[in-house]
Design brief:
- The protein is built from 10 helices and 10 strands.
- It is α/β, with parallel strands linked by helices and 235 residues long.
- It has 2 domains: 158 residues, P-loop containing nucleotide triphosphate hydrolases (Rossmann fold, 3-Layer(aba) Sandwich), CATH 3.40.50.300; 65 residues, no CATH class.
- The termini are far apart.
- It binds adenosine-5'-triphosphate (ATP) and magnesium ion.
- Adenosine-5'-triphosphate (ATP) binds next to helix 1.
Length: 235
């Protein structure tokens, strides 16, 4: 069943400049759906529209059957959508534990139970709970950012380039964590530059070019497509 349905979305940062030019995007229950495309294609902009940081000029955004376009991020969070931005996604001077508490701020009841759950899910966060977030490695910071998002027990998690800047080994670990979160029942929309690795863990994928849908379909089929390999995956 469709969990998130974006249809014909037009959006931009000013009236004169459309970035998304009529975009379609769907995430079904249980799926990992990856979004790839060149720099500036509008991948982050799409996630911002879904999370309510940017109001679409046209088109619809449905969560199940409910329109969420135009709602505020905090209202969208309460409906089960969590978002990890591409940058500035943790509070560096706060401890790991305080960061997780901030993640759960939108729904304060039961924060301590959920805190325990997230620290069990990611033992490194439990071990380092008293350390300032700035002392974490790049990979650990991304895990913390995901942990913060999971504090609201979302139905869908929007991840914007979680593996950016990580070593290949750390990225591999992160992709395994994303798969594990997904197996626990959270649908995932994943924007990634590491397209090969992302397609490997995804069910379906969308290729965006200049604010429009270029190709979409089964992730493995797209990863094996010679034209896509040539243009987007480095041969
Ligand atoms: N806050 C903003 N104000 C004005 N223009 C913006 C803003 N953020 C992004 N843009 C523009 O919107 C376009 C799409 O940006 P977006 O961040 O969605 O691309 P992206 O596909 O995520 O790229 P990348 O792979 O580099 O992260 C770009 O031309 C960018 O310059
Ligand atoms: Mg981006």
């Amino acid at each position: 069943m469709d969990l998130l349905t974006v249809t014909g979305v037009v959006a931009g940062y000013s009236a004169a400049d459309q970035i998304l030019k009529g975009l379609d995007f769907t995430v079904r229950d249980g799926e990992i759906v990856c979004i790839v495309g060149p720099n500036g294609a509008g991948k982050s902009t799409l996630l911002k529209v879904i999370f309510g940081l940017l109001r679409p000029e046209a088109g619809t955004v449905l969560l199940r059957d409910r329109s969420i376009a135009g709602l505020r991020p905090r209202e969208i969070t309460a409906l089960g959508v969590a978002y990890v931005p591409q940058e500035h996604n943790i509070f560096a001077s706060m401890t790991v534990r305080e960061n997780l508490e901030m993640g759960g701020y939108a729904d304060r009841a039961g924060v301590s139970g959920r805190l325990d759950g997230v620290m069990q899910r990611f033992p490194v966060l439990g071990r380092k709970r008293r350390q300032a977030a700035r002392t974490l490695s790049g990979g650990e910071r991304q895990i913390l950012a995901m942990g913060m998002a999971l504090m609201v027990q979302p139905a869908i998690l929007l991840l914007d380039e979680p593996s950016a800047g990580l070593s290949p080994l750390a990225a591999q670990g992160l992709f395994r964590d994303i798969q594990a979160i997904n197996r626990e029942g959270v649908a995932i929309a994943l924007v990634e530059q590491n397209a090969n690795e992302a397609l490997e863990i995804s069910d379906r994928a969308y290729i965006l070019v200049d604010g429009r849908n270029s190709r979409d379909g089964d992730a493995r089929a797209l990863a094996a497509d010679p034209e896509i390999r040539r243009i987007f995956l480095g041969g």
